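sorry to bug you again but im stuck and you know this stuff better than me. what follows is a protein written twice so to speak, once as letters and once as structure tokens for the fold. id like you to explain what the token line says about the fold, in plain words if possible. anything you notice is useful, everything is just below.
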Amino acid sequence: MTERPRLVLLVGAPRSGTTWLQTMLGAHPAVATPQETDVFSRFLQPLLDSWTREVRGGPEGWAKRRYKGLHSVLTDAEFTAIGTGMLDEVVERAAALKPGATVVVEKTPSHSTCAAAIAAFAPDAIVVHLVRDGRDAAASLLAAGRSWGGWWAPRTVARAAAMWREHVLGARECAAANPYLELRYEDLRADGPAALQRVFEHCRIPTTPAECAELLDSFTLDRMAAGDGSIVIGGAFADAARERSEPEGFFGAGGSGGWRDGWSTDDRLTFDSVAGDLLVDLDYVPDHEWAGTASGRRRFERRVARRRRRAALLARFGARGEALERTLP
């Protein structure tokens, strides 16, 4: 009996460099790395949520609902085995796309919010969490929203900050149950070979500093934008994806601090109000002063409070709410 391929889950907020790291890991002969599968976010986490919801309310709730649902047929262990079996099949199929692969690196950013399903169905999966300065990730999200990613990427600073915060906090929950490594995108850029080797070691894949340096040289962002990569695609998309390429603008400049060029004071204060505490917790900034002065923050908070009050009045009184709002201080 052949040994089951080892599963590595590469998570992180969108636009944090996860595709770059995925491609370098996938270039190793022992690693197969498929296109994003969404197996946890679209399939296993909703399945687990439904299973958990079915037993809400305890025994009284079960009786009230007439003991209805999958719990009337399956035990917890049997349900978990079904989910695990599906995941095992996905991992096996992914490994088969690259002969000789013994490790599958699955990268889907939305899996960052699926720690519960990962713990339930893949307790042995190795988790690598790539974290990028939230301001740079948000700026890249906004650029995607204005171009190739308009169908999914946020178009306001507030929503981009919330997306970054949700994914980072969610991914960090994986540390409670799975082998977990948190790596900064900025460290991978600045201390490349050593940082990349730490990832390989965490995944239990032997490499040397020279091999890591070669991977970094082979997969610069410029070369990846030109079409170089190691992501494999099979299944129903196999034939259609033979000539696949990422959309124009998918690979950004990859630098740090680019958000400064286009952000107004309101943009800074908006990000800080949504995700500033996490930015401080991660030591990207020592405090909240990067976003603006105390007086500027007070003016911003008054404007936000006024907009919220106006929205509430409009919702309650319709057009008459505007007139009411103008009478208030």
Remarks:
- Residues 294-317 form the longest helix (24 residues).
